[in-house]
Amino acid sequence: MKLIGFAGWSGSGKTTLVEQVIGVLSARGLVVSLVKHAHHSFDIDHAGKDSWRHRQAGCSEVLVSSGQRWSLTRELRGAAEATLDELLAHLGPCDLVLVEGFKRAPIPKIEVHRAVVGEPLLHPDDPHIVAIATDRALPTRLPQLDINDPVQVADFIVAHLHL
Prior knowledge:
Elements: E1 2-7, H1 14-27, E2 32-36, H2 50-57, E3 61-65, E4 70-74, H3 84-88, E5 96-100, E6 109-113, E7 129-134, E8 144-146, H4 150-161
Parallel strand pairs: 1-5, 1-6, 2-5, 6-7, 7-8
Antiparallel strand pairs: 3-4
Helix pairs in contact: 1-4
């Protein structure tokens, strides 16, 4: 399983870029999966739905299945947050896993940087950053990709990971 991460400050455009890159890579026939880290409480279930009610009643895991998809929700109930490796073990076979967030994971990452966000670059302190998707030229030896060109970013990923 090959993987590459996207890391950057909030508001830098990670989600938009990842969404566009997924479209490009999927159109090329690659099977792409995603692991996204959320820094806040989130819920993919809705209050009042059966699966939500089962979780509220105390289920540790609720798996919902239909003819189109299935989804597994696990309540940690005070347990430690899962590591990236633990999460990756739950994925099915694929050509590539894109990882959004997990800023400190020791995996190859593309830093997503927008000047308007006003935050410092991550790459000087992270040896796992292999390129920067940005909206301006930066003083670095790392490959610089156009944040507004998902085809260029997808091409870089394919070449870098030998897909």
